[in-house]
Fold this sequence. Notes:
Elements: H1 2-16, E1 28-37, E2 40-49
Antiparallel strand pairs: 1-2
Amino acid sequence: TKRETTESTTLSFLAQGIWIERYDPTIEDSYRKQCDVDGRQVILEILDTAGTEQFSESRITLPP
C-alpha cells in the first residue's frame, strides 16, 4: 500500500541517505546505522516488516 511504501522509503532514507523512487515490497528489510546518543556511539538496527499480523510486535534490544 501507499503507507507501507512511504514508511519503507523513509526508513531507507534515514538509515542510508537514499530515497527510493520505486519501492518493490518485500517480506522484510533490515537497516543498520551508527548514531550518537547522549555522547555514546550506538548501532541502531531497524527491521522493516511487511506489516502482517505475524510481525506486529516490535522489539527493542538494549545492551546490558
